[in-house]
Structures are given as structure tokens and as C-alpha cells.
Amino acid sequence: MKIIEIKNLKKTYEDNSIPVHAVNGVSLSIEEGEFTAIVGPSGSGKTTLLNIIGGLDDASEGTVTINGVEINRLSSRKLTDFRMNNIGFVFQAYNLIPVFTAKENVEFVMHLQGAKKEHREARATELLKAVGLGEMMDRRPSKLSGGQQQRVAVARALASKPKFVLADEPTANLDSKSTENLLDIMEQLNKEEKITFIFSTHDQRVVNKARRVVTLEDGKIKSDITKS
């Protein structure tokens, strides 16, 4: 089943009055349960494409349809609600709330959704144990390593049981062991909970794990390969 349908997507910026086509006519479908890497050199449009899919940036032209909803047409408030209930985000910079513990960070989206305290606490505990941080859930981000903070970010992205997760360079700041652990966790969650993962990445280790690799160049799809 198609979970994301992108048609003729374009994003154009002005740079000293010269138009720059960050995304230039991209059409792409993502099936439920995919584990997809979007790759390409710096400036190829990877992050811009992910941000448009996630409703964090507006397209200049084209459409993004998620579960039958054309998100370009949603009001700002409805788009915020849609993101909160359908999309999990993992950012390169983690974006954890520094005054919250790991557990409170994971609970935060569920709190915004109005989930009961008992449910929030149980779900956060379950996810932090799943990512190997069961004994560190009461620590604040400053007391966690980069790899541990990224695992908290993954747990937070999954807390609301999103339809899919967008991960922008999730391993960029991690060492080899942390990267391997994080990818194993994501792959396991993909297989067991059928959560769709879409990565933008330069990391060959992510590409090796991905079952589909979409290569961008100058804002266009250069190749789209599904591994056998």
C-alpha cells in the first residue's frame, strides 16, 4: 500500500536573484513498511525533500499526498496536527529538550496528543528499554553521549506510533558502534512494527542496510534501486 505519493515536486530559492532548484521535478512513491535511503552529494536536495515530505517546508510546485491527504492543502494548524499524529522525526542535531529527562523527552509528543499519564510513562519506558536506555531514562541530555541522545530521539520519534519516520542524517555524529546499534534498532522496529523509515544520508552503512536507495543529483532523481 502506498503511504506517500510525491508528484512533480519542485523547490526553488533565490540566491542573489538567481533561481536555485533545490528539488527539481521529483516524483516518488513510498510503500508502507519500506526502509529507504535518499542519497546524493551535498546540495543534491536530500534534506529539502525530506523537509517537504514532513511538512516542515513548502514546495514551490507539486504535491505530497500522505495516506490520501494532500498535505500542501492543509492549514498551518491542521498540518501541525497531521505531523504530530502521523510522522516521526529524527534530526541530525537530536533536538532534545535539555531540561527534560530522556523519559520526559520521549513522553512529550504523547503529552501534546493528550495521552494519559499512565500510557505515556509505560510507552516511554518500553521504547527506552527497546533502544537500550532502560537504566538511563532519568538522565538529562547533557548526561548522555551523542549516540545515547540519538537513541532517545529515535524513541521519541516512535512514541506516538507514527505511520512513518523521517531521519535526516541520523548517524552523522555517531561513531561506528553507535551507528551499528542505532541501525539495528531501526531495522528491528521496521520489521516488527512495520514502521516505514526514510533516511537522508551520506553514510554508506545506512545505504548498506536500506532495502531501497534513491539517488538525487541537482534536485532530480538520478537512480531508484530496490535491492533483491
Overview of this structure, please?
This protein is an alpha/beta fold. The protein contains 7 helices and 10 strands. The protein has helices spanning 46-53, 76-86, 102-112, 117-130, 146-159, 176-193, 204-209; strands at 2-15, 18-31, 35-39, 61-66, 69-70, 87-90, 164-168, 196-200, 212-217, 220-226. It has a 6-stranded mixed beta sheet with strand order 6-7-8-3-9-10, sandwiched between helices. α4 (117-130) crosses α5 (146-159). The model has no long low-confidence stretch (mean pLDDT 90). This is Putative ABC transport system ATP-binding protein. Belongs to the ABC transporter superfamily. Macrolide exporter (TC 3.A.1.122) family.
What would a concise description of this structure say?
The protein is 36% helix and 30% strand. The protein is globular, with a radius of gyration of 17 Å.
Element order: H for helix, E for strand: EEEHEEHEHHHEHEHEE
Uncertain segments: none
The CATH superfamily turns out to be: P-loop containing nucleotide triphosphate hydrolases
Structural class: alpha/beta
Estimate nothing, just give the exact number of structural domains.
Answer: 1
Number of DSSP E strands: 10
Distance between the termini: 19 Å
CATH class call: Alpha Beta
Strand ordering within the main sheet: 6-7-8-3-9-10
Helical amount among residues, as a percent range?
25-40%
| CATH fold assignment | Rossmann fold
Shape: globular
